[in-house]
Write a structure and sequence with these properties.
- This protein is mainly β and about 300 residues long.
- It has 2 domains: about 180 residues, Immunoglobulin-like (Sandwich); about 80 residues, Immunoglobulin-like, CATH 2.60.40.3080.
- About 10% of the residues lie in helices and about 35% in strands.
- The strands form 6 sheets. A 5-stranded mixed beta sheet has the order 4-9-2-1-13, with no helix packed on it.
- The longest helix has 22 residues.
- The chain is elongated, with a radius of gyration of 25 Å.
Length: about 300
């Protein structure tokens, strides 16, 4: 008996279209939730520097293995200054073998996620993105569940720790729907070209827990009364303050390298003619306080 194969190809195509349609329906029904937890204001050096610290948590109504992702954070420039990534004021955990966060995950000694990037999208919005190295072929269990899991820990350097942070995820298009399920393939290494992950198109952004309790210290209040003027500047600046005690000034670039040191500041203008355009951090110290101020050279 002859078997007519002329109907096989259409049937296979129909089956393939149906499978893709069902996958699409599942992706649209699936959501992810991003939220803040363990939010606090910290000062590891007892009032010299202040940081905003928080865990970014992720969960989903359908379990899956996380692929690549990107999120955007808006913030108050009065609290952190503009362009926090470019100024070196933002850090986040990733790639630490044995770490507590999803972006620290390793498989057989290799990091599951790589190509970490952070960029200033605007002067008050920063993006954080990552890709995956290890895919579903590794056999690793789903790492996103209905129980919120810590995706990353962020730390942001304050320029004015008394200001409200106004930190929240950017939820409007085109800044949403930027997370994917894991790429596949037979090997452990993710084959995202031939077996791409599914884009998740139902994001829920929860910023209700993003505001920290401010540290209430005498040091903090005195430091806030100190001001650099003019700032930004191109050739010189002074420090405006009611403090009459001796004051030392240490000028560092954003990488922490010492640029200049003034042992006793006398109130006269400080020349910046030898400084290149950019952002500098001034450690100002008296017998009562220590504080850091950000100086912008144009």
């Amino acid at each position: 008996m002859k078997h007519n194969s002329q109907f096989r190809t259409p049937l296979l195509l129909i089956s393939l279209v149906l499978i893709l349609f069902l996958i699409s329906l599942q992706a649209k029904a699936q959501n992810i939730t991003l939220e803040f937890a363990n939010v606090q204001q910290t000062s590891p050096d007892a009032g010299v520097t202040f940081y905003y610290e928080a865990d970014i948590m992720i969960s989903s109504n359908i379990e899956f293995y996380l692929g690549s992702g990107q999120l955007y954070l808006n913030y108050n420039t009065n609290a952190f200054g503009p362009n926090i990534s470019g100024s070196g004021g933002l850090a986040y955990t990733h790639g630490i073998n044995g770490g507590d966060y999803l972006l620290d995950e390793h498989f057989s000694g290799s990091p599951v996620y790589n190509n970490f990037m952070q960029n200033d999208d605007t002067e008050s919005r920063v993006s954080i993105s990552f890709e995956q190295l290890i895919g579903t072929g590794s056999g690793s269990p789903n790492n996103i569940t209905a129980i919120p899991q810590p995706l990353m820990h962020i730390r942001m350097l304050y320029t004015n720790p008394s200001e409200v942070v106004n930190i929240c995820f950017e939820s409007n298009a085109p800044f949403d729907d930027l997370f994917y399920t894991s790429c596949g393939g037979a090997s452990a290494t993710a084959d995202c070209s031939n077996f791409p992950g599914i884009q998740l198109t139902n994001d829920i952004f929860d910023c209700s827990n993003s505001n920290p309790t401010l540290l209430s210290t005498e040091q903090n209040n005195e430091a806030i009364a100190m001001k650099l003027f003019p700032n930004p500047t191109s050739n010189k600046f002074i420090i405006e303050s009611d403090i009459t005690s001796e004051m030392s000034i240490q000028v560092n670039d954003i990488h922490g390298r010492l640029i200049n040191y003034i042992e006793e500041y006398d109130g006269n203008p400080i020349s910046t003619s030898d400084l290149q355009t950019g952002i500098y951090l001034l450690l100002i110290e008296t017998d009562k306080i220590k504080t850091i101020k950000k100086l912008i050279i144009e």
